[in-house]
């Protein structure tokens, strides 16, 4: 459920997205907030500027949180973002341990506004294969690096 406080922070994420366009960047913005609503970090999409397909604001903030926050703090944060995170960003958010995501536009709404946003091809994947060979470095690593 989205609260009035969430709406205030979500509006800030939309402002970040709008500001990004004045810089020539794509209209996507995000922020990471603590439990009291304090903004910890903000980011906008710089994919074109940086020539980096991973420069989505959600992924930038997930990476920031993984580097800068302890796991308990990360789990108590909320990521506010102008659009629903894509699959790449969702994976980064999950791995970073963030506690919650609140978004404005859904992916379906974004594709309706900009059909090109949904034009990503499916990439074929084959596997699993060579289990006995592939397991060796994994077994070796975790034998020596278990928490």
TrEMBL record:
InterPro entries: CMP_dCMP_dom, Cytidine_deaminase-like. It comes from the Bacteria. Residues 4-121 form the CMP/dCMP-type deaminase domain. PANTHER family: CYTOSINE DEAMINASE FAMILY MEMBER, TRNA(ADENINE(34)) DEAMINASE, CHLOROPLASTIC. This is Nucleoside deaminase. It comes from Kitasatospora kazusensis.
